[in-house]
C-alpha cells in the first residue's frame, strides 16, 4: 500500500495498459504525489474495487470534501482511465449511451456516450453530483448498474461490459435522504432500487493531522524571515487548519455564534493558502488587507456581509502574525 502513502502490507489490483489506445491512456488521471489518503476510505474503496466490479460505488459527502479527487488519485495509482460526467436536471439516457451527429460530409455518425466508452474500453465512469439528475434516469439504466451488456438501440450493437469498467457516483446528499440543510438546490431523492445496487462510502473533511500535512506539502520553498522555512510551514499549516475548523464549527451551528452561510472546505483551504502567500509576499498590503484580499477571492465574495465578517474575524484571530514572516520575492 506504499503507492497510497500508507506504511502497511498489502497491494491493490492495478491495470496493465500496454495495448490500450492512446486516447484511452490519456484519460488516466495525473498523479498528485502530495495527495493524502485516509485509511478508512481507502480500505472501502480497495475492497469494492477488487470484490465488486459489477456494482457501482456511491460516495457522499459535503462539497469540497475531496470525493472526486479521491477517485481520481486512486485511479492514477492503479492505472485506470476515467471518463467523467457532471449530472444536471435535463440529463437523459442518450447523454450516457450516445447519439448520432452530422459529420462535415453530411453523413451521420454515432458517437459513444461516457457510459458506452467505459463499457467498450474498460474505463471508470465517474458521475459527479448524481442527484442533480432526475431519479428515473438512473432507474432507466438499472441493468447497467449490475454490469449487464449494453444494448444501443440506435445502432443495434450489443457491448459486453469490459472487465475493467467500473461506475462511481458522487453526491453531496446521501441518496435516499433529503438535504435538510437546504444548501444543494435542485436535488432529487434516489429510488431505493437504484441505491440498493450501490456500495456506499461516506467522506467528511479530512482529519486535522492529514489536512495539516496536505497544506504543508503544498507550500513552495519560499523565503521567510524570523524563523526557519520548515518551522514556518508547520506553524502556518497549523494555524490555517485551526481557522478552518473554527469556521466549520460556526457553519454547523456553534451555540452563541451567528450562523454563517459558507464554510472552508479542503478545496477552499488550499486556495486560501496560495492566496495568503501571494498577498503576504506582495509587500504592498498590510496584514489585515492581505488577509481580507485572500479571503474575498477564496470564499467571501460569494456570501452575505455578516457571514463574510464572521469568517474574516475567525481567520484573522487564528492566523495572528504568521504571515508577517513572509519575505517579498
Automatic annotation (TrEMBL):
Domain of life assignment: Bacteria
InterPro entries: ATPase_dyneun-rel_AAA, CbbQ/NirQ/NorQ/GpvN, P-loop_NTPase
GO terms assigned for molecular function: ATP binding; ATP hydrolysis activity
ATPase dynein-related AAA domain: residues covered: 57-175
Any coiled-coil regions, as ranges: none
Protein name: Mechanosensitive ion channel protein
Amino acid at each position: 500500500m506504499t503507492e497510497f502513502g500508507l506504511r502497511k502490507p498489502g497491494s491493490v489490483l492495478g491495470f496493465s495498459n500496454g495495448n490500450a489506445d492512446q486516447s484511452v491512456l490519456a484519460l488516466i488521471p495525473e498523479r498528485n504525489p502530495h495527495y493524502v489518503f485516509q485509511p478508512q476510505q481507502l480500505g472501502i474503496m480497495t475492497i469494492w474495487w477488487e470484490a465488486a466490479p459489477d456494482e457501482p460505488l456511491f460516495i457522499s459527502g459535503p462539497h469540497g470534501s475531496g470525493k472526486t479527487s479521491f477517485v481520481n488519485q486512486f485511479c492514477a495509482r492503479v492505472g485506470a482511465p476515467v471518463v467523467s460526467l457532471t449530472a444536471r436536471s435535463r440529463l437523459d439516457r442518450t447523454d450516457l449511451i450516445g447519439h448520432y451527429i452530422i459529420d462535415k460530409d453530411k453523413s451521420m455518425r454515432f458517437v459513444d456516450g461516457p457510459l458506452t466508452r467505459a463499457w467498450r474500453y474498460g474505463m471508470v465512469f465517474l458521475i459527479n453530483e448524481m442527484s442533480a439528475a432526475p431519479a428515473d434516469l438512473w432507474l432507466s439504466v438499472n441493468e447497467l448498474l449490475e454490469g449487464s451488456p449494453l444494448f444501443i438501440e440506435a445502432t443495434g450493437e450489443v457491448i459486453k461490459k469490459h472487465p475493467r469498467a467500473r461506475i462511481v457516483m458522487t453526491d453531496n446528499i446521501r441518496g435516499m435522504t433529503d438535504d435538510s440543510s437546504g444548501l444543494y438546490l435542485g436535488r432529487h431523492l434516489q429510488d431505493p432500487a437504484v441505491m440498493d445496487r450501490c456500495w456506499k462510502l461516506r467522506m467528511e473533511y479530512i482529519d486535522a493531522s492529514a489536512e495539516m500535512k496536505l497544506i504543508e506539502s503544498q507550500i513552495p520553498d519560499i523565503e521567510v524571515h524570523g524563523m526557519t522555512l520548515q518551522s514556518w510551514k508547520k506553524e502556518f499549516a497549523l494555524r490555517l487548519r485551526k481557522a478552518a475548523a473554527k469556521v466549520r464549527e460556526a457553519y454547523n451551528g456553534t451555540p452563541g455564534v451567528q450562523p454563517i452561510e459558507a464554510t472552508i472546505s479542503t478545496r477552499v483551504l488550499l486556495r486560501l493558502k496560495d492566496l495568503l502567500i501571494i498577498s503576504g509576499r506582495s509587500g504592498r498590503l498590510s496584514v489585515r488587507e492581505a488577509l481580507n484580499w485572500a479571503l474575498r477571492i477564496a470564499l467571501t465574495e460569494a456570501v452575505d456581509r455578516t457571514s463574510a465578517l464572521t469568517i474574516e474575524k475567525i481567520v484573522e484571530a487564528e492566523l495572528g502574525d504568521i504571515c508577517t514572516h513572509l519575505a517579498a520575492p
